[in-house]
Write a structure and sequence with these properties.
- By secondary structure, the chain is mostly helical.
- The chain has a single domain, classed as Four Helix Bundle (Hemerythrin (Met), subunit A) (Up-down Bundle).
- Helix content is about 60%, strand content about 10%.
- A hairpin with a 6-residue loop joins β1 and β2.
- The longest helix is centred in the N-terminal third of the chain and has 33 residues.
- It is globular, with a radius of gyration of 23 Å.
């Protein structure tokens, strides 16, 4: 019985060592891949990255829907878009990014999801307060994920000691004041 336990222990140790070595091999950078990697596995990686890109694109598009609803002083549309944004954040997988980017994206997603939840359940002024933080989160996310369309970071010096937002147009339409001061602000930078 003692020999069986020793053999089981030795076998478990051997399997652990093999798995450990395999895991270390699997975590190497893209540049250190062996030429024997199959084209099929590379193709599946490309599909995963394309899927992640499309999820990031969908998040930006829904963020712009929230922004446009606030510009139009439409609290109901902002709430609906905020709810959809929450669902998009739930489906966003950060694991196709580097470990440093994953850490940052996880923090961004948690905070942005919280802001979107508030927007989905709040009156207009409270939606605008949460939109400010959401805008910062989306800008930080885009800095990591990139964007397939040109965006404009715009700035309003009047709202809450200065606030930014992203827009698909260089024409300033202020989501913080809506019809009260629609054109208050300026383009700070172009994001490609």
């Amino acid at each position: 019985m003692k020999k069986v336990k020793v053999m089981l222990w030795a076998s478990a140790l051997a399997v652990t060592a093999i798995l450990s070595i395999s895991c270390k091999e699997g975590n190497k950078d893209e540049d250190t891949k062996t030429p024997m990697q199959s084209p099929t596995s590379q193709k599946s990686m490309d599909v995963k990255n394309d899927t992640q890109d499309s999820k990031a694109t969908a998040i930006v598009a829904m963020y712009l829907s929230v922004k446009n609803a606030l510009v139009a002083d439409n609290s109901e549309a902002a709430a609906e878009a905020g709810g959809k944004l929450v669902a998009l954040f739930d489906g966003f997988d950060v694991f196709s990014y580097s470990s440093a980017e994953q850490t940052e994206l996880k923090d961004i997603v948690v905070d942005a999801k919280e802001q979107a939840e508030h927007i989905s359940k709040s009156p207009m002024e409270h939606q605008r307060e949460h939109f400010k933080t959401l805008s910062n989160d989306i800008t930080d996310m885009v800095a990591i994920t990139g964007t397939d369309k040109k965006l404009y970071e715009q700035f309003c010096p009047m709202y809450d000691n200065g606030s930014t937002w992203l827009s698909a147009s260089d024409e300033v339409k202020n989501p913080y004041y809506g019809s009260k001061m629609l054109s208050c602000g300026k383009v700070q930078q172009e994001i490609n």
